[in-house]
Specification:
With 240 residues, this protein is an alpha+beta fold. The protein has ten helices and seven strands. 43% of the residues lie in helices and 14% in strands.
């Protein structure tokens, strides 16, 4: 946004990297190394400014935490401009405690994705949360001085992959492109043939897919299938 002359006045030196990403970026002078205490101060500063934390979606060895605004952060801009996605959210959502509300409207101003609206009736102002837009960042609750907004755990929890490898496999499975992850060279006819072959197997019914998997004994395919089943069981268990 700065290159386009549209940057806001929010700080730019607030996005954090960790582990391998931090080592690589600091080695090449793209980022600077800071202590844990300094990182905590960055997070505290961003919370005070009303920025939202977007983290690496893995359980182990998190590589980054971005602290963005609603007008310059590319992830939030894409979320708003390309269409709100109800499948993207944290495991928490805001609940309004109406009797505590004084109608100040700060939650509407602070919401980065315009998920809170005001309706006025004979009883006064009424605030509504559009859960199709809200991804549970918690900025509204942080900035409410009257404890009107509480962040509660969602009934349907999102599954968090163990690491970036597991995340890549799950993303490929979800969009039906696991074959492209396995064979990614679009210029080799052998890769194209194998992509079609794996694609056909993945679209088979569970019994035929198991039979095919037993015949060519692919450890990767077996792992991918077990990974998806484990993820589905965890989500189902969380819902119950």
């Amino acid at each position: 946004m700065e290159h386009m002359g549209k940057a806001c006045n929010q700080p730019q030196d607030v996005c954090l990297t960790f582990n391998g990403a931090a080592k690589t970026l600091s080695k090449h002078g793209i980022a600077k190394e800071i202590s844990k205490e300094e990182a905590h101060k960055v997070l505290d500063r961003c919370v005070e400014l009303g920025l939202v934390q977007l983290g690496d979606n893995v359980q182990n060895r998190v590589n980054w935490i971005c602290n963005g605004c609603g007008c310059c952060c590319e992830a939030i801009l894409a979320y708003k401009r390309l269409g709100y996605n109800p499948g993207i959210y944290s495991n928490f959502k805001p609940i309004m405690v109406k009797e505590n509300c004084n109608g100040c409207g700060i939650c509407v101003k602070k919401c980065l994705v315009e998920a809170i609206t005001i309706l006025s009736d004979e009883n006064g102002k009424k605030y509504l949360v559009d859960y199709e837009r809200c991804f549970g960042c918690g900025v509204c609750a942080r900035n409410c001085n009257k404890d009107t907004i509480l962040m509660v755990r969602r009934e349907e929890l999102m599954f968090t992959p163990k690491d970036s490898f597991e995340r890549g496999v799950l993303m490929a499975i979800d969009v039906g492109k696991l074959q492209n992850l396995l064979f990614d060279n679009q210029y080799l006819w052998t890769h194209k043939m194998l992509q079609r072959f794996i694609g056909i197997i993945l679209n088979l019914g569970p019994v035929r897919r198991r039979m095919a998997n037993q015949q060519f004994k692919s450890k990767f395919m077996t792992y991918a299938r077990k990974l998806k089943l484990r993820r589905d069981k965890k989500i189902k268990g969380s819902i119950v």
